[in-house]
Design brief:
mainly alpha; homodimer; 2 domains; Tetracycline Repressor, domain 2; about 70% helix; DNA-binding
Chain lengths: ~210, ~210
DNA sequence: TGAATCTTACCGACCGGTCGTTAGGCAAAT
DNA sequence: ATTTGCCTAACGACCGGTCGGTAAGATTCA
């Protein structure tokens, strides 16, 4: 059965999150599974394959989560709100995996690195298109789309590094705060008619 | 002379940034300095001491940079703007060191870990006090101070992970964008008189 | 001044230990 | 009888770190 294969993955997620990929040993993972380290190689070709399996699965689920949350949402602002919320919720709900996926890219082989980065880029571009649509529709102020998208993504991603499931704030509450914070950043100056200080004049197209 | 001691530090910064602390070997650092690895131990007690030296120096400089930028600035909003700008500029200007300082904490010994985290906490608390002063003075909307401060810090810090010195945007331009983005986030709803959606009702004091 | 001593900054060789990985075998399940 | 899932044992490579030693310069003392 594939039960042990899943166990290995879940133990590896715990250890990679806690001590980092390079500081985690195969024997440590094996011990966490209650087997010998040689037995790991029956299920995975090598250590890097475990890391890749975690990242691949996480990135795939991240994209699927976003797609599901956007189906049926047509209003531009509502779509971006939904995207932000989806992003935050996924990252907080899958705190360990997303932290690993964003911090252990260096552990991947060249081919696997390219595969994961390609998925990440697709995700980023999708968000950038949402922002551009909003600017085009006049509900967001003009700004540097790349920087804004990075800001949104890293803001939400960083949440996964300090979020405490036992803390005082729920995932929903945090998502709400981020949602408002980001939306007001995107709309900045629009309602006030203020000419905008340094953000004005930057290109809005992608490089 | 202490020249080699500095060379080791600068080579280590390059390698830690590029490959990570655990993936960098003492012999690699030595090779980068043009000496044998045993000679490293004449200048530093062990590998971790090199990491600590980098972090300690960086955190000290970070605090000093902020203090210098805030002297003479009294207006609450201007102080927060200056703090954000100081933070962004320092992180982009010392991209490698700040990236290491924020991503390689796990490489430190317990005692050194506590020392660095203490410095980081002091810095965070300082920013939180700035925000609270702004809320108290009525120029920022009420919100969760902890979350807001984390948002500001991670937003700026993340810039160090994607900033390209040879890219199309200058440090000054990026700092300006972040400054406006964050300020509008902090002021959200104030001028519009909108009751605020999910951000309303959270405590503004520190835990 | 000159000899003796100490300090600085480095080297080559080596240590114990851990790493990821492989080979081969064994017992239970199919 | 074969496959599945795990085992014990061992491999070579490399790790951080220590050792004794050394060449060159600075300092001390006669």
């Amino acid at each position: 059965m594939a039960r042990m294969k899943e166990t290995i993955l879940s133990v590896a997620i715990d250890l990679f999150f806690e001590k980092g990929y390079f500081a985690t040993s195969i024997s440590g993972i094996a011990a966490g599974c209650g087997i010998q380290k040689a037995s790991i190689y029956y299920h995975y070709a090598n250590k890097e394959a475990i890391l890749f399996a975690i990242m691949e699965r996480t990135m795939q689920a991240l994209v699927a989560h976003l797609e599901q949350r956007l189906t049926g949402v047509t209003d531009v602002e509502a779509r971006l709100r939904a995207a932000v919320r989806s992003h935050v919720e996924f990252h907080l709900r899958h705190q360990k995996e997303t932290f690993i996926a964003s911090s252990e890219l260096r552990g991947l082989s060249d081919a696997h690195y390219r595969a994961i980065v390609a998925r990440r880029d697709t995700y980023e571009q999708f968000l950038q298109e949402l922002i551009m649509a909003g600017i085009g529709a006049g509900c967001f102020a003009a700004g540097d789309v790349k920087i804004l998208s990075y800001a949104i993504l890293t803001l939400c991603t960083a949440g996964a590094s300090w979020y405490n499931p036992a803390g005082r704030l729920s995932i929903d509450a945090i998502a709400g705060i981020y949602e408002d914070f980001i939306l007001s950043g995107l709309k900045q100056g629009l309602s006030e008619g203020r000419p905008g200080t340094s953000a004005a004049g930057y290109m809005t197209h992608l490089a």
